[in-house]
Amino acid sequence: MNKPRIFSYENLVVLLMGAAFGFVFFDRLALNFLAPFFVPELNLNNSQVGLLAAGLALTWALSGYAVGRLSDYLQNRKPLLVCAIVIFSVCSVGSGLANSFLALLAARLVMGLAEGPVLPIAQSIMAAESSEHRRGFNQGVVQNFLSSLLSSFAAPLALVAIGESYGWRNAFYVAAVPGLVVAALIGMFIREPSSVTQRFSRDRIRLTTMLKHRNIWVCAIVSCLMVPWLLVQVTFLPLYLVQTRGLSPAAMSIALAAIGIATAASSIVVPALSDRFGRRPVLSLFAFVGAIAPAATVTFEGPLPLMVVTLGIGYFAAGTFSLFMATVPSETIPPAYAASALGFIMGIGELVGGVAGPALAGIAADALGPSSPMWIAAALCTAAGLVCLMLQETAPRVLDRTKRVIAGSAA
User: Fold this and answer.
1) Are 170 and 162 in contact (CB under 8 A)?
2) Residue 358 · residue 57 · CB < 8 Å
3) What does the record say about its membrane topology (predicted)?
4) What is the number of other CB atoms lying within 10 angstroms of the CB of residue 3?
């Protein structure tokens, strides 16, 4: 008797790749959720908080592209993925041991080196193991759904509670444990994607060759705009809600967890809509929607629950990340080079947007006021929505529908 479809190997890959990237962001965002605790103790200002996020983004970008290319060349993705997960988990302990800005920055730089390769390698494995009609859905779950549940919902509730009861250092120590468990599970149950290993050579692809594909450079530009849209908000929103809006750390954690639920829902809804209606229109629409969140953070004067709902609507833009970082590139370029393309798009977004975005937003917050980062975020996603209109459609269902229409017209 055949096993039920829910227990397929494809679904196992979705679960473990999603958990891997989920705990990447769990550890990465721990810094932001715990900021109200360690910022006063270490006497940090907004510029330094921005630099902590920017430093991690810098090393994340460099290692994401470099190790992504290495995994394409070696065609041996699983060991690299397991090693990366183990290293970034251990680095969370280093964050908890830090007693100064420089020590904390050093820990985040090393963490970025380990975390950068996880997404391009995980998504290249997912692309190889996905059914064609489920590619957008699978990659959305990997990049957004589980990461949102783990990092945007569970992390603020768990880490803030631990920080309040046992101190922020112990919260960082606890954050290291889940990644080690996921690394062990991947080592036991995930196999190297044979479809890629057997069908393609180990030739490297030049960056100039990748950039001849319009979708690759368009997605890279979108990444440079949407990555800082997200990172600027996750870096400064906890501090803004506590220091400017007057929420307690506990209330802040509940508000962010509620937003995390909306972000998780977006990872199902947005890629599924793109499978049906096309990557380009859905990407553009939800990038524009992203302006709602930062604008409402500053201007909304109603009750907190209604404000959280409004922010949640804006955070549906997070569902676009798997599309421009994974689905569209993997449908544009040969699978053997998927990790290189994904690493480049993620890396350039982190390098340009992830480094400059939080750093400049922190400087703006100190110079112009705490609401400045939110207005910067609103402008970034509006620009991204316009750039998305330049994409060439890649959704298989939409392309098949177009071919049938053309064939019918020709007949």
Assistant:
1) yes
2) yes
3) Multi-pass membrane protein
4) 8
Q: Report d(CA 168, CA 248) in Å as an integer.
A: 16
CA distance 272 to 255: 26
State the Cα–Cα distance between residues 310 and 304, nearest whole angstrom. 10
* Ordered structural domains, the chain, with CATH: 9-197+204-400 (1.20.1250.20)
Q: Rounded distance, CA 333 to CA 329, Å? A: 6
**Contact by Cβ (8 Å): 3, 98:** no
Instruction: Tell me how many degrees the CA angle 153-157-160 measures, rounded to the nearest 5.
Output: 135
User: What's the predicted TM-score (pTM) here?
Assistant: 0.71
Q: Do 116 and 60 form a contact (C-beta atoms < 8 A)?
A: yes
Helix pair angle (279-289, 249-277), 10° resolution = 160
Q: Can you tell me whether residue 44 is helix, strand or coil? A: coil
- Provide the sign of the torsion angle of the four alpha carbons 293, 297, 300, 306, taken in this order: positive
CB atoms within 10 A of CB 309: 15
What angle is formed at CA 134 by the lines to CA 139 and CA 316, rounded to 5 degrees? 50
Quote the tokens at residue 174: 């606890």
Helix (H) or strand (E) run with residue 109 in it:
helix 101-115
The token pair that represents 395 in the structure block: 């959704």
Going by the DSSP 8-state scheme, the letter that residue 192 receives in this structure is P
Quickly list DSSP for 178-245: HHHHHHHHHHHHPPP-HHHHHHS------HHHHTTSHHHHHHHHHHHHHHHHHHHHHHHHHHIIIIIS
Give the CA distances from residue 309 to residues 262, 293, 359, in Å, rounded to whole numbers and listed in that order: 8, 10, 28
Q: Are 38 and 167 in contact (CB under 8 A)?
A: no
Successive 10-residue mean pLDDT values, the chain, 411 residues: 65 88 83 86 87 84 74 74 88 88 91 84 80 72 76 82 90 89 90 57 64 87 92 86 84 82 85 88 95 90 85 91 86 74 80 82 88 93 95 82 67 57
